Amino acid sequence: MATRIGFAGLGRMGAPMAARLAGAGFPLTLWNRTAATARDLAREIGAAVAATPVALAGASDVVVTMVADDEASRALHLDPGGLAEAAEGRLFVSMATLSPDHVRALGAALAARGGALIDAPVSGSVDAARAGALAVMTGGAPQDVARARPVLQAMSRVVLETGPLGTGATMKIVVNSLIHGLNQTLAEALTLAESAGIATRDAFAVIEHSAAAAPMLGYRKPLYLEPQAHPVTFALDLALKDMGLALALAEAGGVATPQARVTRAVLEEASAAGLGGEDMAAIVPFMRRLGRPS
Asked: Strand 62-65 and strand 134-139: pairing?
């Protein structure tokens, strides 16, 4: 009998990930806080819809969640009518960017009800989610990761085991801290080149063929060159959230992270300037404005 999958959280990343699972032939049930989003996607990909989180869990063997933050995850699982009320015998796969402390506490709460949790956040773009080319970093008991692996493989190009529960979340914070630092540094580099009279496209072309190139620069190139001409794929305020998680992790571990502090400070300033809902590539025009004399 095929593993029944429940998927909760159908945002920019969650929707294409759920579509990959449907395309792989898993019996799929959807839930989303905005019910119309779940209904529309279900019609498109041939899935069922659950009226509540607990109904979603009850209809599933493995429940995948992709939500915005710790509070959304806590509410989805532990509020009345939440997923945890049908936890017995089920495996929960948290694929969002969450704090390790929350992941471990949630794992304990689900275990107390007879369920199991792994954290399996992803790295990659919306296009990578559509193509099933995400990188997944997984923390949890080996038997639970093994149980989830066929589900994860349907959405990814690689599944990397990182250790006990919470280590996947830790590695996602580490990776995103690096990405947001690169985002900030790229913005500074482009504005520096522009100040010397070099066209932005020419400067970007040199950077993407240099030793400083990273895959992120390639798939985010249109957003850096024309940020207003493309839909948001990663909101600036989510980057700010990530940097808060990174600095909390650094403080708990006694790790010096001066670059991360600068990155967060600039993101805070950009968010205060009204750019929080725009793509994180908006940091490029923001840096241009910062450099102009008053």
From this structure: unpaired
Cα separation of 214 and 151, whole Å? Answer: 28
The rounded distance, in Å, linking the Cα atoms of 18 and 32 is: 12
Q: Is residue 244 domain-shared with residue 227, that is, in the same domain?
A: yes
Q: What is the pLDDT confidence band of residue 227, given thresholds at 50, 70 and 90?
A: confident
This prediction's pTM: 0.94
For 2-19, write each residue's pLDDT tens digit: 899 999 999 999 999 999
Same-domain pairing of 156 and 180? no
Q: How many helices (H) and strands (E) does the chain have?
A: 14, 9
Is residue 172 flagged as an active site residue?
yes
- Which residues form the domain of 94? 5-165
At 30, list the tokens. 């959807």
Q: What is the CATH number of the domain that holds 193?
A: 1.10.1040.10
Q: Which of 20, 102, 172, 264 is catalytic?
A: 172
